[in-house]
């Protein structure tokens, strides 16, 4: 096997608010102008680094808005988020849970802090990924997968070294439960100080990691502190991480979708005409109805 080398270790770009509930560092596509397909099939990575929200009766969040042509994947580390969409799907995710929403042909949804968490306030930390869909699936029926921490398969790192929660794809024979349209591996690696772990992922898959907690060394050379994004070159199929403290690392890797991208706001399509269609359908109420 050949080492997958680190292209860059990127500190979090300046944050911006999404609604009033999410204070996110956008690593791509905007934050670091790495190109719309550099991490394909992942189009966007918003990272809400740890923030302490004050208690509030009315939950903070983002009101009703549309999506078409892709999936939003929300991974909770601290705090709790409630979701509702125009297909009647709803759910709450808390630490360790994942919400995998396939917008596909189009949904309206809203994302708010869960009511009890909002009343109590406290630490909040989340990741939202936008996962592109291949052209043939962009107009498929919307769907919703809720993957709770309790039901997620995991791999135990030998020697009490921690565990790998497999959200999607497969790690050392352990399969994730998320259905994906294209090949994707997505893991939360919870690794104890001093432990090393080898991760094998195909050379052509675009691969990165977010250091959610703690700090790691990659391939025994590159230091990646908390809240940093590690971007790998597509030059090998194996790398190691060594925890310099007790750490949590989100690993994302996927087979690139080699199709044109036309992106605007909440829509991710292949052509400009499809974007115009999305706006027109949204304005005509084709995406359904959802109360604010
Ligand atoms: Mn959304």
- Judging by the overall fold, what is the CATH architecture? Sandwich
Range of strand content: over 45%
Mean pLDDT, nearest integer?
A: 97
Give the bound compounds: manganese (II) ion
Counted up, domains total 1
Low-confidence stretches: none
- Helix content range of the residues, please? under 10%
What characteristic shape results from the CA principal axes? globular
Supply the number of helical segments: 2
CATH C-level class is Mainly Beta
Number of E-state strands: 26
Looking at the structure, the CATH topology is Jelly Rolls
- Ends distance: 52 Å
| Assigned CATH superfamily | Jelly Rolls
Class derived from helix and strand content: mainly beta
Task: Tell me the strand order in the biggest sheet.
Answer: 1-22-19-24-17-14-13
Query: Largest sheet at a glance?
Result: 7 strands, antiparallel
The SSE order reads EEEEEEEEEEHEEEEEEEEEEEEEEEEH
How much is the radius of gyration in Å?
A: 18 Å
Map the helices and strands.
Elements: E1 6-10, E2 16-18, E3 22-28, E4 42-53, E5 61-67, E6 70-78, E7 81-85, E8 90-93, E9 98-102, E10 107-113, H1 115-120, E11 122-132, E12 143-147, E13 154-157, E14 162-168, E15 170-171, E16 174-175, E17 184-191, E18 196-200, E19 206-213, E20 215-218, E21 222-225, E22 229-232, E23 238-243, E24 247-254, E25 262-264, E26 267-269, H2 272-283
Antiparallel strand pairs: 1-22, 2-3, 3-4, 4-11, 5-10, 6-9, 6-11, 7-8, 7-10, 9-12, 13-14, 14-17, 15-16, 17-24, 18-23, 19-22, 19-24, 20-21, 20-23, 25-26
The protein binds manganese (II) ion.
